[in-house]
């Protein structure tokens, strides 16, 4: 997979390093000469250019990229890069960094963003996740389909504790994708039972989050079919 990263600061370089370790091709783009530190990520390709300029993106051959990551510290730049990547080059997957949570509402499909990652929101979500049992925590927003990655730790008193996954009447537009049980990461099957203390990860439509939280947290006699 070929990935272009706009922004060669600490965030961009860290992402590049991880992707390279996983065997992907990575191109780092930055307009600041001081940011071009080839020795820090020697296996990456580097381009000294303004990622908001079409000529720069032509030089980067963005049409060959499977993923573009807009990882600069400027939300305006990240939006422009995302829009150009999607509309001018047809990049299948565009991931954008949100620096200011007040701008998060802009990072959607109308600006070419498939996945928006807000560091402040993610950090606060991880804090909530560490201390909250029975409360739904939003970890990540997906622009397409208005869906979110959400987490809930199943409380002791939940009516679903001891229930098989296949017996639960899940809300529409929700999917249980992972069960984290202690040190184990489980891909749920219909026969798997839910246990108190399980961390449950869902992809769910935002409109269904409250219904999902009620189902998982409350003592409900109608929680199972």
Automatic annotation (TrEMBL):
GO MF annotations, alphabetized: potassium ion transmembrane transporter activity
Span of domain RCK N-terminal: 1-117
Claim: Transmembrane helix is one of the keywords in the record: no
Pfam families, per database record: TrkA_C, TrkA_N
Cellular compartments per GO CC: plasma membrane
SUPFAM superfamilies named in the record: NAD(P)-binding Rossmann-fold domains, TrkA C-terminal domain-like
Top-level taxonomic group: Bacteria
InterPro entries in the cross-refs: K_uptake_TrkA, NAD(P)-bd_dom_sf, RCK_C, RCK_C_sf, RCK_N, Trk_Ktr_HKT_K-transport
Entry keyword set: Ion transport, NAD, Potassium, Potassium transport, Transport
Limits of the RCK C-terminal domain: 137-218
Gene3D superfamilies: NAD(P)-binding Rossmann-like Domain, Regulator of K+ conductance, C-terminal domain
PANTHER family: POTASSIUM CHANNEL PROTEIN 2-RELATED-RELATED, TRK SYSTEM POTASSIUM UPTAKE PROTEIN TRKA
Name of the molecule in the record: Trk system potassium uptake protein TrkA
Source organism (scientific name): Streptomyces griseicoloratus
């Amino acid at each position: 997979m070929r990935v272009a990263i706009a922004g060669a600061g600490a965030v961009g370089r860290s992402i590049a390093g991880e992707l390279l370790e996983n065997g992907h091709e990575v191109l780092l783009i930055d307009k600041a000469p001081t940011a071009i530190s080839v020795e820090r990520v020697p296996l990456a390709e580097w381009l000294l250019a303004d990622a908001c300029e079409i000529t720069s993106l032509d030089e980067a051959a963005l049409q060959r990229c499977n993923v573009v990551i807009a990882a600069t510290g400027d939300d305006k730049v990240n939006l422009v890069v995302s829009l150009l990547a999607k509309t001018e080059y047809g990049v299948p997957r565009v991931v954008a960094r949100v620096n200011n949570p007040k701008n998060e509402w802009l990072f959607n499909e109308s600006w070419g963003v498939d996945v928006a990652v807000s560091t402040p929101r993610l950090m606060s979500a991880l804090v909530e996740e560490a201390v909250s049992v029975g409360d739904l925590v939003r970890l990540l927003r997906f622009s397409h389909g208005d869906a979110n990655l959400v987490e809930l730790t199943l409380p002791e008193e939940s009516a679903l504790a001891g229930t098989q996954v296949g017996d639960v009447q899940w809300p529409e537009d929700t999917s249980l994708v992972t069960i984290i049980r202690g040190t184990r990461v489980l891909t749920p099957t219909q026969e798997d039972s839910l246990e108190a203390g399980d961390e449950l990860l869902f992809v769910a439509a935002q409109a269904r989050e409250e219904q999902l939280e009620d189902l998982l947290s409350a003592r409900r006699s109608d929680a199972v079919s």
